[in-house]
Amino acid sequence: MPAELSQTFNSSGKEVLGEEVTGRVTLINNYVKNQPLVATTRLLGPNGKLFRLKNTVNVPAGGKVMAEVYADEAKAEMAIGPSKFTIPGLWAGLQDQIYAQSDQPMKYSEKVKHIINQSDIDLAVSKLKEGLLAKVKEEASKNYGEYDELLLQLDNNSISQEVQGKVGEEQESFIIKIKGLATVVAFKTNDVYGQLAAKLNAALADDKTISEFNGQSVTYALNNVDLKQGLAVVNVNFTARTTMKDGAKVIKKNNLTGLNEQQVKAYLDNLPEVSGYEIRFFPSFIRTMPKLVDRIEIVIKQ
Q: Which residues of the chain have pLDDT under 50?
């Protein structure tokens, strides 16, 4: 099945060109005269943090003006919260009447140049291949709805990619398109389960039988595909539980005659085919195995 996919990815490479801390303040003039303030006028905040006006402004008498400011020293710690600022360049007698107030925190930011790295393209192609398979699976599920298992494989020789950008190029993001062919193998799991059970039974010893086989434990991996012949080789992994048949002779009665309880346990513990056991004596006060074989009963739990 042919498929194609395109997506925008961010470039991870970056070069920091500079830093800045910026914000806005309200200049307040409670004096009787207008107050002009030139660009770069100093505004002194709490703990001696110094900011400057970005543009020249004229604050009217009894009025207010919004103005943009920047930190004299661009550091992350200069991103202070709402504060009151004095204007040290003014006559000391005016500083309590003409001042600045900020309502929002100052903002720290970096001036960054983004660059496309080779790793960005490699990661993008890897993600797009996954997306391509997901797209094929969605379409195949519609076309082959009568099958409950789909195995997909991309033909790497058919993959082509188109990148809108080059390695080392200054670009914040880039678009990459990928297209190719995918092989779809569809089958019914019930058909497989029958073959698995048959093969397992054939491989088991005569004294064993399958006690539990859960189809949910089965996993599939596509090995090889011959499109001309319409044949696929699939590796199947599964787990099953087996048990001994009722007529199994794993435990020899002759080896149990006359043994006490501890000796019986030691014997059973050395049998690899026995995963667990329970010993019952009758009458219960007798703790030794009978000396007659026909008085010993062995029950295999299924």
A: none
